[in-house]
Amino acid sequence: MRTSSADNFVAAVGEFVRIVRKAKKSKASLASHRYYAPRARAILAELRKSFIMMRRDYPEERFARVAFQLAAMEPLVTRIIEMFPSDLSEMLRLAEAIDFKLKSDLAAELDSSEANPVLSTSAPFLPNDLIEDRHGVMQKILWEANRCYDAACYSACAAMLRHLLESLVIEAFEYHGKADTIKAGGEYVELGALIGKAVAEPALRLTRNTKRVLPDLKFLGDLGAHNRMALVRKDDLDRLHNQVRAAVEELARSL
Question: Residue 187: phi, psi to the nearest 5?
């Protein structure tokens, strides 16, 4: 399955080939020409960005064959970036080689069933309908948490779940007209204090299990977002899965 990063990479490579061919034909310099120089630089930046995003979208542990093709292309991408803006002939040769691989080897892997994300064939980490459509931002946060889990980015998943938890608590207090009770100096208190307020607030009707899991969820979110020396692992999230699922639904019920 092709992601948006894959489509962007294909488009950027094609456009880079086109602009270098034109510059070469016109004998224009990509270092100084008024049109070709800034245009080529912008396209090359997009090419590099989309390639990096593809490497993230197709981790080796999930998409070994796609990752293999990307690894084979990486030296070509790196070489073009290193030599830019000189040697148009060599840059064109390398870009055309990437373009050929994109349309043959990589295309074959992207179009194979093995490149389909797990979310297309199995249940997400948390059900997508836990958050109603009217809460678009939080629904997107939930989607991103699921996408991170699917891509084996467990620290990122934990950070997004922390973000979702904080948003849900604040929205729940606002819904019940109690926003002032979670503010200090006109600003919302930090998440640890928010959890303490939520646990003690009768209007939210949180169960005992949810009250217990909220600090654990904050801990994993902090670990994923802020700790330079440790990573959140799949087992960490799986261990709390049922309680987190229930907690999100309980808080969403209060919106």
Answer: -115, 150
